[in-house]
Amino acid sequence: MEAVQMMLYALIWLIGVVNLGCFFYVLFKMFTNNDVGLALISLLLVPCSGLGMLVAFIGGWAYVVRYDTFRPMAFWSLLSFAQILFAIAYVLLVIQQDGGLGLAAR
């Protein structure tokens, strides 16, 4: 069970790194299409609140025709969905291993 947890954890981080690459690709497309304001907002919000990736994700889908990024955005969407599923599976495995949430009276 421990090996499965470690594999899921590593997979979550690996997908996160690829997600970061997709984020930078969409930022590059924003800059090359003169959407500097949206790109800068995305860049500034990443360290401030972490919402910059969400802004870039929504902006990437909103301007998918202008940026010509349908395939990269679809790939980023699938990766994000997979990362969420793997994170849920990891949390469930940790809860199962620890014997529940610890909310029951002892």
Give an account of the 3D structure.
The two termini are 26 Å apart. This protein is 83% helix and 0% strand. It has helices at residues 2-32, 36-48, 52-62, 64-67, 70-98. It has one domain (2-98). The chain contains 5 helices and no strands. It is mainly alpha-helical and 106 residues long.
Radius of gyration: 18 Å
Mean pLDDT: 91
| Head-to-tail CA distance between termini | 26 Å
Structural class: mainly alpha
Run of helices and strands: HHHHH
Entry keywords:
106 residues; mainly alpha; 5 helices
What does the secondary structure layout of this molecule look like, with pairings?
Blueprint: H1 2-32, H2 36-48, H3 52-62, H4 64-67, H5 70-98
Give a short summary of the structure.
The protein has 106 residues and is mostly helical. The chain has helices at 2-32, 36-48, 52-62, 64-67, 70-98.
